[in-house]
Amino acid sequence: MSLIKAIIVNTIFVTLAVFAGTTLPDLMPVPQTVKISGENFSLDSSFTVSVQGADADRILGASNRFLRRLSGRTGLFFSQDYITGADAETETALNVVFNRKGVLKVNEDESYRLEIKPAGIVITAETDLGAMHGLETLLQLLTVKDGHYIFQGVIIEDRPRFTWRGLMIDASRHFMPVNVIKRNLDGMAAVKLNVFHWHLSDDQGIRVESLLYPELQNKGSDGSYYTQCQIRDVVRYAAERGIRVVPEFDVPGHATAFIKAYPFLGAGPEPESIERKWGIMYPALNPANEKTYIFLDRFFGEMAGLFPDDYFHIGGDELEHEGGHEAREWNENEQIRQFMKENNIESNAALQAYFNSRLLEILTRHQKTMIGWDEIFHESMPTNIVIHSWRGKEAMVRAARLGFQSILSNGYYIDLIRPAKHHYLNDPLPADIDLSDEQKKLILGGEATMWSEYVSSETVDSRIWPRTAAIAERLWSDGKVKDVDDMYRRLRMIGFQLEEHGLTHIKNYEM
Q: Quick check: helix, strand or coil at residue 266?
């Protein structure tokens, strides 16, 4: 082993040894660097917080939630009722300093520095997003020594490894009420996830109110859907926690609910009802009907007004092509066969690429970047779309080589109840990946995916937590941090802490 390699390996072991010993509480995700000073901050009811920075509403809200959670964990009644900002005449125990309000976008600065000394604690960051991450780390550093609550003296320099660290929740198969979404957003913020991917349409239901097309909720939802007011409320709630909300409306397959509401959209007969079971269904939108694109343009435009994020997910999965029975409505539709002949479209895969190219034009007009599952990957598509890999890393690697950005969910399917180790050792960019440095930059990160066929609002948390915290660490921490035993040790503590947000993965275990 070379001297340089030995130094790197020893540094990693020292960092992990800090967390494996008794000197620090359990931290998840593991920060990039931790230095221990040995000088601790003692906590009592006189603890106060100040915030310094322009446009501080979001970090003020986060700081007040921090103070209430700290009170809940310790039982201390702090003299400071509410954090309103910085008071030059008052010294505070915790000073949060940031330069600017962060923008909820890809590749925003989320780094922070946390220093704990006996005289006080300072969190500094370029953006309020980084400062919020610092507050979460500080909460995890709370411990007890000699009968007193302390924050152990450390200097932490931290930043995320990947810019896209997400959780997808499917609200179509089983509807998930707003309170379920909000408590999971709080859990996401606690482990530094920053993208909530909301799966809002499938064969079993359209879950968003449309004012332009009210039959979507009247005929396509069984009465279980989010009002536009509720959507705006969730988007605001997520933004206050530094989390982007990316909607998904799955087309052209998984479209039974769309077609039941508006039969003219379908390539086949009108379904008798929205779907009552799970699987890959026949109904698909008709890509040869110009009215399909008029509908999607208006509907996507309406939804773009509800969801301010730059990205918009169109699904695009499981419409099997050559020889696949799931595309039979396309195969049996005379209008579609004639359209393919007139436009020299030789296969269903090419027809879906044509459909996706039309959606790309629509979403571009609405100032959105298109994302789709890896079935949308086609050589005819431009590289300004994002490939969401669920069937395997091969599509993601191939996409990167051709200049496409991508996100990994293969290996992060938490609905399958795989052990946390399975997800933890699944890396979007393993050390042996055969990509250039420039191609590696196209891999944005990953998402845990919570499909809801076999869960309800009472049991969904038990699939998501605490294993998603292990995925969060894989997407945040250095790729060399992968001690499975140490991960499980820390996962037990973070799982316990997460229930302060109203999550029910422990509480509802018997259920």
A: strand
Round to whole Å and give the CA distance between 75 and 77: 7
Spatial separation of the C-alpha atoms in residues 358 and 366, rounded to whole Å: 13
Closest CA to 165 of 189, 194, 187: 194
Dig out the tokens for 136 from the structure: 């979460």
| Rounded distance between C-alpha atoms, residue 199 and residue 270, angstroms | 23
Higher pLDDT, 282 or 194: 194
β-pairing verdict for 142-145 and 120-127: unpaired
Determine contact, residues 172/207, Cβ cutoff 8 Å: yes
Cα angle: 189, vertex 193, 196; to 5 degrees: 95
Cα 485–487–493 angle (5° rounding)? 115
**Confidence category of residue 326, pLDDT binned at 50, 70, 90:** low
H or E element in which residue 151 lies? strand 148-151
DSSP H helices, 205-248, are 215-219, 228-240
Q: What pLDDT band is residue 3 in, cutting at 50, 70 and 90?
A: very low
Residue 464: CB atoms within 10 Å? 23
pLDDT at residue 17 in the model: 38
∠ Cα 248 128 495 (to 5°) = 65
Please list the active-site residues: 318
Residue 331 is which amino acid? N
Band (pLDDT 50/70/90 cuts) for residue 449 is very high
pTM assigned to the model: 0.94
Residue 101 is classified by DSSP as: P
Tokens (6 digits) for 66: 């921090």
For residue 49 the two structure tokens come to 């917080």
Average pLDDT over the chain reads 93
Q: What is the pLDDT of residues 103-150, one digit of tens each?
A: 999 999 999 999 999 999 999 999 999 999 999 999 999 999 999 999
CB 106 within 8 A of CB 310: yes
DSSP bridge pairs for 75: none
pLDDT digits (tens, 9 = 90+) for 228-237: 999 999 999 9
Residues 6+ apart with CB under 8 A from 410: 389, 390, 391, 392, 393, 396, 426
